[in-house]
Amino acid sequence: MGIDIGTSSTKTVVIGLDGTLLGLATQEYAVETPRPGWAEQNPETWVEAALDTMRRALVAADISAEQVQAIGLSGQMHGTVCLDRRGRALRPAIIWADQRSAAQVAEVEARIGRERLAAWTANPLATGFMLATWLWLREHELDVVADTAHLLLPKDYVRYRFTGEIGAEPSDASSTLLFDTANRCWSAPLLAALGLDARVLPPVVASAHVAGGLLPEIAAATGLCLGTPVIYGGSDQAMQAVGHGVVAPGALSSTIGTGGQLFAPIAHPAYDPQARLHCFCHVMPDMWHLESAMLAAGLSLKWLRDNVMMGLTYQEIADAAATVPPGAEGLFFLPYLAGERTPHMDPHARGGFIGLTLRHGRAHMARAVMEGVVFGMRQGLALMLDLGVTPERDVGHGIVASGGATQHPLWLQLQADMFNRPLYRTTTVEAAAVGAALLAGVGVGVYADVADAVSRVVRYADAVVMPDPENVARYASLAETFTALYPALAPTYNALWT
After folding, report:
1. Which has the closest alpha carbon to 459: 394, 392, 391, 395?
2. Helix-then-strand count for the chain, H and E
3. Which of 47, 171, 403, 437 is a plausible cystine mate for 238, CB 3.0–4.6 Å?
4. What's this model's pTM, rounded to 2 decimal places?
5. pLDDT tens figures, 29-47
6. Which CATH number do you get for residue 179?
């Protein structure tokens, strides 16, 4: 069984040892925004969604509880859950999309410097990361800080509720910016420089380690067996990569979901000296990954649907976009609706349509939004290539498409054309949850290791999306204009915040 604690929903799968999907259940929930720029969730919402989907997935699988050999967890990254000494959440979790800690990010960069921070953690700091959030709490909610005994990431809180064990694992811990990614331990120099107490940070063990067994109340609520082993698990990006077989150098995943991520496994830790990319631990003990992250990928299309193209489905919007030629007849969209990470690392960045004329209609806007998302991801790919990432062009080593955007051919063609590489798809459904299930199998010895699990389970679809040479040339030219827009408008963004 694999459980993916996502930002907008929790998904649970039950798979056979050969990867056959036996049961699937999903439960959606909201992100709370008590103030502009804030993003919070009640940790109990995740637990309740996990219990509900575990119970329904088991029923859908039509197997006995005794047949479930292990449970794995995948989770949204960066978020912060504050627990008191009794293990109770002291406040709503502050999640990755939260923007309130911009001042704390600036303070860390001023005190430590981007280069030294990258040397200690292999990463840039962004709002919504646990370090920035903890510094904000230290400044604004002293009572919470005083009562906090443990800081946990979202999936680690759920696992604690399942087993009673406090802990973390490297793939998610490296997303906190409190972690020495190269050495897979909490960063002592960083903690000392910022005066942070290491005692609130949990012990870190291997991602495939067994954390413990299901507690009686959890077993009763789900219909599963008391003591069913629960594996530590991994970050949602590492888990979707396992579910898609992206576990060795030469492979790369391109995910367009709420956000947009490019994920490239690397054999040794590396970081961008200008701090525009992330370097996190993979779930294998001898592997890391570079990650390009944008905040509003599918979220940009959701904004368009909810505010401009009301009443249309995503499929209908993408169908309309496909009627417009590449380049949307001179219309560009900057997908910075929630600030931006790669490549700008600017929480003040704002979205916008550039080049609107009387000729442009809603279909043009739809195409511009979809192109703007992939233009932004193209910038991230360029940074990865500069750091030596070499995605191959053959199946199993090329660029694997992931996320909700795999559901429409235009999203796929845009990526193939702008990345100028073939785009592959696997047959995996709910890759992060499946990845969590595979890691659970590794943890209890069903599979020898992650590579064995992937070889036995992950299969590729026959259809390959090839780049169109004419579109490749067209988008390469348009990318120069897109790239010039952010620096031209950045002073305007800053003025809006002063």
Report:
1. 395
2. 17, 21
3. 171
4. 0.91
5. 989 999 988 999 999 999 9
6. 3.30.420.40
